[in-house]
Specification:
With about 450 residues, the chain is an alpha/beta fold. It has a domain at about 10-80 and about 195-260 and about 355-415: FAD/NAD(P)-binding domain (3-Layer(bba) Sandwich), CATH 3.50.50.60. About 35% of the residues lie in helices and about 25% in strands. It has eleven helices and 18 strands. The longest helix has 29 residues, at about 95-125. The radius of gyration is 21 Å and the shape is globular.
C-alpha cells in the first residue's frame, strides 16, 4: 500500500497517513445544529483547542469546541510525533521586552510543557505509544559546541532528566548513519503517536463535559461582551472565545492570520522493518533531529517503521509526489534502505511566526478573545502549555507565563496573504545557501 495525500486537500476525514491507518479508537462527533451557550467557545480541534478545553473543564467551565473537519485533522494529527523540550528559538532575543528573569521563566516553561504531556497521558491513560529518549544531531562542529552550551544551560535550570553529549565516534549508539559529528541525548524528551494522543484527549474532554462538534467550520464571529460564533447550521454564544486554528486560521481573523505563515511539512513511512533493521537504524528507539534549516527529523513507529520527515516549504507549493521528494533525503541518511518500500506519504501545514516564539495572548480590542498559534514546528509540547496558560488567564488565575508570552510583540508578515509565502521562501533560500556553504567551512 502506498497511501498519499496532497497536504492542501480539504477533507472531512483524516489524511490517509500512517497515523490514520493505525488509530486505536474511532470517535465521531456531531455537526453543530441550532444554538448553544457556554462559558467558553473554542475554535479548532487540535492540541491547542483540546488542551484548553480540558484545562477549562477541569476548572469547572462549560466549554463548546468547534472543529471544521475531524478532531486532530490538521497538524496535531499529522506531525512527526516528536515531543521535544523547549519553546521558541533564541529566547535571549526577548530579554529587552521581558528581562533576563522573563527569559529564564520561558526556558522553564519549555521544560514544563513536556511534563504537561506526560501528566495528561498518565492521568487519562491515553494509549499513544509514548516513548522517552531523544537526540539532537550535530551536522557541524559548531552544532556540537552549541549542544555543550545547551547542556550547561539545562543543568542550570535544574533539568532532572539524563543528558549526555556524544562525540562523532559515539554516534553509532543512537543512529546508524555516518552523517553526524556528534549529538546531545535527552531522556526527558521523546516521541509518540500524535493522532492517538489527540483522540485520547478528545475523549478526556468529553468525559469532563466538553461539547465537541465536528464538520462545523466557523464562517462568522460577532464580537462583543458576549461573542456569537456562527457555523453553517448553528451558533454558539459564549462569554469568552479561544482561537486555536494555527496554520488553518485562514480569513477568520485577519489580524491574527497575518502573524502566522502556513508552511508545508512532509513525512514518509516505510514498510515495517525487521527487528535487526530497526536496531541498526536507531538502536535506542529515540526520536532524532538534525540542525539544518531544511532539517531532517525521524524516528521508529511502534510497529518498527521508519517515519522520516522534514523539507519545510514556505513557498505555498507542495510536492506532486511526496515520496519521490522525501525518499532521496532519507537515503542520504540511511543509504542501506534503498530496497525498502515506502508505505505512506503525507503532509500538512504548520504555523510559523517571524520570531519563532509561540503566539499566546488576547486581542487588544477584544479582551474576551484569546488565541494560541505559530508553534514553528514544536507544537506537540507547546500546544499543551498554551492550553494551561489560556485556561489560567480565562479563569482569572495568576499566570506569569501567559503574561510573558502576551508581552512579546509579533510582526505581521509583509506582502499580505498571497505574497507573504513567496517572500519568505526567498529569505529562507538564503539561509539554506548559508547552510550549504557552512558545510565547506564547518568552524
Amino acid at each position: 500500500m502506498n497511501a498519499r495525500v496532497q497536504p492542501s486537500a480539504q477533507s472531512h476525514q483524516h489524511a490517509p497517513s500512517y497515523y490514520a491507518a493505525s488509530v486505536n479508537r474511532s470517535l465521531s462527533y456531531p455537526a453543530l445544529a441550532g444554538e448553544v451557550s457556554a462559558d467558553v467557545c473554542i475554535v479548532g480541534g487540535g492540541f491547542s483547542g483540546l488542551n484548553t478545553a480540558i484545562e477549562l473543564a477541569e476548572r469547572g467551565f462549560s466549554v463548546v469546541l468547534l472543529e471544521a473537519h475531524k478532531i486532530g485533522w490538521g497538524a496535531s494529527g499529522r506531525n512527526g510525533g516528536q515531543l521535544i523540550r523547549g519553546v521558541g528559538h533564541g529566547l535571549e532575543q526577548f530579554a529587552g521586552v521581558i528581562g533576563n528573569d522573563g527569559v529564564r521563566e520561558l526556558q522553564l516553561l519549555g521544560l514544563e510543557a513536556v511534563e504537561i504531556v506526560r501528566r495528561r497521558v498518565e492521568h487519562y491513560a491515553i494509549d499513544c505509544d509514548l516513548t522517552w529518549g531523544y537526540c539532537d544531531l550535530a551536522n557541524k562542529p559548531r552544532d556540537l559546541a552549541g549542544f555543550a552550551e545547551d547542556l550547561d544551560e539545562l543543568k542550570s535550570l535544574g533539568y532532572r532528566h539524563e543528558l549526555r553529549l556524544l562525540q562523532a565516534d559515539e554516534m553509532h549508539q543512537v543512529v546508524g548513519s555516518n552523517r553526524y559529528v556528534g549529538g546531545l541525548i535527552d531522556m526527558g524528551s521523546g516521541h509518540l503517536h500524535p493522532l492517538n494522543l489527540a483522540l485520547g484527549e478528545a475523549a478526556a474532554a468529553q468525559s469532563l463535559g466538553v461539547q465537541l462538534f465536528e464538520q462545523s467550520a466557523v464562517n462568522r464571529i460577532d464580537y462583543g461582551p458576549e461573542v456569537c460564533v456562527h457555523t453553517a447550521n448553528g451558533k454558539v454564544r459564549a462569554k469568552n472565545l479561544v482561537l486555536g486554528c494555527n496554520a488553518y486560521l485562514n480569513d477568520l481573523n485577519p489580524t491574527l492570520g497575518g502573524k502566522v505563515l502556513p508552511a508545508g511539512s512532509y513525512i514518509i513511512a516505510t514498510e515495517p522493518l525487521s527487528e535487526a533493521q530497526a536496531r541498526t537504524l536507531i538502536p535506542q528507539n529515540m526520536a532524532l533531529c538534525d540542525q539544518r534549516v531544511a532539517l531532517d527529523y525521524y524516528r521508529l513507529s511502534a510497529d518498527r517503521r521508519l517515519l522520516f520527515g522534514g523539507a519545510c516549504h514556505y513557498s505555498g507549493r507542495d510536492p506532486q509526489d511526496i515520496a519521490a521528494y522525501m525518499r532521496p533525503k532519507m537515503l542520504e541518511v540511511f543509504p542501506h534502505l534503498a530496497n525498502v518500500k515506502i508505505a505512506y506519504q503525507w503532509g500538512g501545514m504548520i504555523g510559523i511566526g517571524a520570531n519563532r516564539l509561540p503566539q499566546i495572548g488576547r486581542l487588544k480590542d477584544q479582551p474576551n478573545v484569546f488565541y494560541a498559534q505559530a508553534y514553528s514546528g514544536h507544537g506537540v509540547n507547546a500546544t499543551h502549555l498554551a492550553g494551561k496558560l489560556l485556561a489560567e488567564a480565562i479563569a482569572g488565575q495568576e499566570s506569569r507565563g501567559f503574561d510573558l508570552f502576551a508581552k512579546v510583540p509579533h510582526m505581521t508578515f509583509p506582502g499580505g496573504k498571497h505574497l507573504r509565502s513567496p517572500l519568505l521562501a526567498l529569505g529562507m533560500l538564503w539561509y539554506r545557501l548559508k547552510d550549504a556553504l557552512g558545510s565547506a567551512n564547518p568552524l
